[in-house]
Amino acid sequence: SKSSEEIKQQNSELSEQVHSLVSKNSAMKLDIEDLHKKLEMAELMIQQFSNQSQSLDASQQLQMALEEKASLETQVAQLSESLKQLQVERDQYVEKLKEEQRIWQQRVQRLSEQMHTMAGEKEAHMAQIRELEANIAEM
């Protein structure tokens, strides 16, 4: 019973961790989408500046937009890598949960079989006790 409770607790904790990773995964996907949108905006700005005259101010703005684009691309790459890592961790937790569930199902099955066997033995012992009591009463 204690082991069962401990396993249930572990399963709960692992489930919470999986849910947490799924939440982080979703948040990172949203961040990536936002960064992609910013990247598209930066690319549009670059195109607009490229089409305009090459004044010093426009050139500075173009340089800033290029730097922002590079920064956003770096962030997208980092978030994509983090997302992949979270997905791997999530998959590992799911597999661990499945394995523990299988183990506990086997244990529960064995305990159930043992209880059934012990109930049969108890009934046999009770019958033997009644028979012995009857023999004693006859004597």
Automatic annotation (TrEMBL):
The keyword NADP is annotated on this UniProt entry: no
Top-level division of the source organism's lineage: Eukaryota
Its Gene Ontology cellular component terms are: cis-Golgi network; Golgi cis cisterna; Golgi cisterna membrane
Biological processes annotated in GO = Golgi organization
Biased segments, Polar residues type:
9-20
Q: Where is this region: Disordered?
A: 1-20
Q: Which residues form a coiled coil?
A: none
**What range(s) does the Golgin subfamily A conserved domain occupy?**
78-139
Keyword annotations from UniProtKB, A to Z:
Coiled coil
- Protein name, please? GOGA2 protein
Q: Which organism is it from?
A: Crotophaga sulcirostris
Gene label: Golga2
